[in-house]
């Protein structure tokens, strides 16, 4: 049975961490090519950025978000700023790489240096010819808190200056919330637990909002630098399944990308 258009819920499913590793790139592009998922966020500072751009352009995908980053949490694949470290000394450890956590970084970060670096990241993605659909933040570094007000304001102004939407998480509190952000990471470490979470979420349609996912297609490859490989593989398997499409269609959910959001 079809659902009347005026009753449909609009949902963005966005793949974070594109550019971090080829396995993440491959899974993300596969989802985007199938059009089962319509948004992704690209890290401009990570080792597999060029691979991600090549895959995006080769697949005919024209738009991508910028996954702004001031942290590098994996010691086996560290990354640092695009700017010379002498221009942004507060952003880096003595080895020239970003701090591993947001909490550690905020003790050091200078907001003007951070803005300079983030503009460079946005420009690098823009220089590829890809259309920038939105901005969001790795490890939610600018999300509102007592220690991040300056960064929230700065990134909000950045989004305005580039005329693109900015992700600001709104945690689900009531079913009638106008916009809700759904995100799991440590909460469900096993595949079945993640599948059940997504089944429940899609079976009981949320209001307009976003599900943030972290797909990868190779458990062994991710295991070389992270213990979260099963989380990432499970995200890929669920959102590439026919079950996902059936659940969303039955619930009358209209899938969108950040580039379509009005």
The percentage of residues in β strands lies in 15-25%
Helix content: 25-40%
Q: What is the radius of gyration computed over CA atoms, rounded to a whole number of angstroms? A: 18 Å
CATH class: Alpha Beta
Per DSSP E runs of 2 or more residues, the count of β-strands stands at 7
Average pLDDT score: 91
The CATH topology annotation reads as TIM Barrel
Major sheet: size, sense and barrel closure?
A: 7 strands, parallel
The global form is globular
pLDDT below 50 for ≥5 consecutive residues: which ranges?
A: 1-5
Q: How many distinct domains?
A: 1
The DSSP helix count reads 9
Structural overview:
With about 260 residues, this protein is of the alpha/beta class. It has one domain: Glycoside hydrolase/deacetylase (TIM Barrel). Helix content is about 35%, strand content about 15%. The chain has 9 helices and 7 strands, in the order βαβαβααβαβαβαααβ. The chain has helices spanning about 20-35, 50-60, 100-110, 110-125, 150-160, 190-205, 220-225, 230-240, 240-250; strands at about 10-20, 40, 65-70, 130-135, 180-185, 210-215, 255. Strands 1, 2, 3, 4, 5, 6 and 7 form a 7-stranded parallel β-sheet that branches. Helix 2 (about 50-60) links the parallel strand 2 (about 40) and strand 3 (about 65-70). Helix 1 (about 20-35) packs parallel to helix 2 and helix 6 (about 190-205) crosses helix 8. The chain is globular and about 55 Å long. It starts with 8 loop residues before the first strand and ends in a 6-residue tail after the last strand.
């Amino acid at each position: 049975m079809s659902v009347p258009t005026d009753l449909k819920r609009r949902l963005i499913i966005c793949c974070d961490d594109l550019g971090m590793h080829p396995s993440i790139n491959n899974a993300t592009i596969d989802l985007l090519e199938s059009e089962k998922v319509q948004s992704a966020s690209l890290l401009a500072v990570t080792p597999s950025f060029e691979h991600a751009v090549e895959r995006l352009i080769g697949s005919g995908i024209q738009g991508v978000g910028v996954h702004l980053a001031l942290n590098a949490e994996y010691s086996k694949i560290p990354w640092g700023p695009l700017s010379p470290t002498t221009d942004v000394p507060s952003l880096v450890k003595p080895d020239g790489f970003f701090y591993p956590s947001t909490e550690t970084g905020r003790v050091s970060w200078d907001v003007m240096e951070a803005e300079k670096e983030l503009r460079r990241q946005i420009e690098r993605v823009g220089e590829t010819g890809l259309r920038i659909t939105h901005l969001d933040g790795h490890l939610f570094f600018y999300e509102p808190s007592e220690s991040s007000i300056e960064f929230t304001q700065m990134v909000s102004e950045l989004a305005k200056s580039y005329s693109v939407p900015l992700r600001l998480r709104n945690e689900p509190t009531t079913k009638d919330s106008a916009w809700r952000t759904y995100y799991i990471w440590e909460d469900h470490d096993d595949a079945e637990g993640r599948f059940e979470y997504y089944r429940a979420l899609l079976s009981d349609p949320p209001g307009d909002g976003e599900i943030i996912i972290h797909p990868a297609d190779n458990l062994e490859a991710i295991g070389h630098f992270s213990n979260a490989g099963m989380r990432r593989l499970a995200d890929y398997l669920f959102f590439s399944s026919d079950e996902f499409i059936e659940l969303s269609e039955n619930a009358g959910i209209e899938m969108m990308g950040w580039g379509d959001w009005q």
